[in-house]
Amino acid sequence: MSSSFGQLFRISTFGESHCKGVGVIVDGVPAGLALTEADIQPQLSRRRPGQSSLTTPRDEADKVIIQSGTEFGLTLGTPISMFVANQDQRPADYGEMARIPRPSHADYTYMAKYGIKASSGGGRSSARETIGRVAGGAVAEKILRHNYGVEIVAWVSAVGSIETDTVDMATVTREQVDQSIVRCPDEATAVAMTERIEHVRDAADSTGGVVTCVCRHVPAGWGEPVFDKLEALLAHAMLSIPATKGIEIGSGFGGTRMLGSAHNDPFVMKNGKLGTVTNYSGGIQGGISNGENIYFRVAFKPPATIGSTQTTATFDGESAKLKAKGRHDPCVVPRAVPIVEAMAALVLADVAMRQEARAAFVR
């Protein structure tokens, strides 16, 4: 199903950007896990609109309600339903867009596929859909942290041509990431990124960026050979996020410029376990985790909806000019950080359960 993700740990998201609300059904959560809205809300609050001058001013609290699957603060082992109400919709802002598809948005492709589209907002292609992902990812993350000590931290590493490579993946924390509204833990670079986003916002334009993510303490052995390789699952997860256009795992495209003698990660004993001296592999070899930090970078395009007038065409092919109304992010990466973390958690929780099932069967 196009709105579901995962196998043993599985989510199904629902809702459109301007309907009554959005949410998620999470299946596969073990019984007896301590879980309340307080475990979910922090990540949703990091994702919500209106949190800073760099984001859309749409005013949504994004307060989550757990509707099923728990009792007295413990999971029952049954599907968990979570819901977030839409409270600050402005459908009137989208009147002209009913006949003019926004350039580089999903308006035309949804119409081509279904013969109909949501009359306001982006419908299922809107970033509102990611609320369900973040809520489900928060559950996955709690399982990973509680059972395996896995830590997942993402941050903004580039806005346009402004980038940083000084962040220490081994030690960076979410608290450090959140010290700046642009969510870059490099203070000087964060200032330059903020100024860049403010400039394009004031010019009624937009800019893209990159989110880097590290997953620490992932045990060796997670992931499946051939088609369900761990990097393939991560790529699927990340490229399903709205506005993504690419992913690099480990050395990524930069590794293509290296010699094999330099790129190979020699093995060495670390605290009684086999590890590697370098980590150009990004913690994954043969599609399976090797115990080193898993790290990757996700590219986000400039948001398609901008306030500048654009020459384009109507659905009927007639020439038209479009100056989009509504409230939109000039750059999505500050709010994309918890979404990237959530999708990484969903992948890792699923492959962890698959590995546990394999080990249980062998015993």
Any overview of this molecule?
The protein has 363 residues and is of the alpha+beta class. It is 28% helix and 22% strand. The chain has a single domain (4-362), classed as Chorismate synthase, AroC fold. The strands form 6 sheets. The protein has a 5-stranded antiparallel sheet with strand order 1-2-3-7-4, with helices on one face. It has a 5-stranded antiparallel sheet with strand order 9-8-10-16-11. A two-stranded antiparallel ribbon has the order 5-6. Strand 8 and strand 9 form a beta hairpin. It is globular and about 65 Å long. It starts with a strand and ends with a helix.
Give the C-level CATH assignment. Answer: Alpha Beta
**How many beta strands in the DSSP annotation?**
18
CATH architecture: 4-Layer Sandwich
Query: What profile does the largest beta sheet have?
Result: 5 strands, antiparallel
Strand content: 15-25%
As for the number of domains, it is: 1
> Whole-Å distance between the termini?
33 Å
Low-confidence stretches: none
